[in-house]
Amino acid sequence: MTAKNLHMEHQMVMSSPEFAEAAMSWTPVKTYYLLFNMVLLIEYLISTDSRSLTATHSNALKKFRGLIESGTVTFNSSELNEVHSGAAIEKMRVLKSDNLRAGSASRKEQILRKLLDYAKDEERRKTNVKKLRKQQMIRLHGYKFCLFDLFYWYRIKVNYRDLEFMTAGIPSREFEAFYKDYYKLTGNFFLALKNCLNDIAVAHGIGKVI
User: Fold this and answer.
1) Where are the domains of the chain?
2) The whole model's pTM is what?
3) Could you give the CA distance from residue 43 to residue 127 in angstroms, rounded to a whole number?
4) Is 132's pLDDT higher than 80?
5) Cα–chain-centroid distance for residue 154?
6) d(CA 21, CA 14)
């Protein structure tokens, strides 16, 4: 249902580009749940434990990172098979000017650093501090991150935290471009998870499920 709904909204944006501005306030939420539910199915097929289907967001994603890190779950794209600690991400260096380049060679590193920034912001919010203490940084450096986390953190950003970009005077054409890129990104991750899910199902003698 969510996939069909996202496809219908995409068609609306294609025919009425100005609709992208409104769509971007809920599209990251819908895309996250679409992908998250696929993650739950993958974890269930591997563990055959029905409790996997009702796992919390943080627990399910932590387990998924573990499956990737152990090689239990693999993808055709090497970047999707990478899991990085907060400490490793902290050491990644990206030129500020790279963020403005459409074809930046360090886009993966930029995304991972942004995910760590989101985690730091969340830690500050939860503990009501402006500057993180040493123990908090040690804990954050021990966290693991992968590119799938982008959808989790961006869902939080638009659903709970930072909707100010909706009134920041951004031109409609930029919303349209961002929407199209986000929709394409979602489609790529959906296909990767779909192939993974079907491969695991076939290996278990079930056959393709999607």
Assistant:
1) 1-75+150-210, 84-145
2) 0.88
3) 31
4) yes
5) 7
6) 13
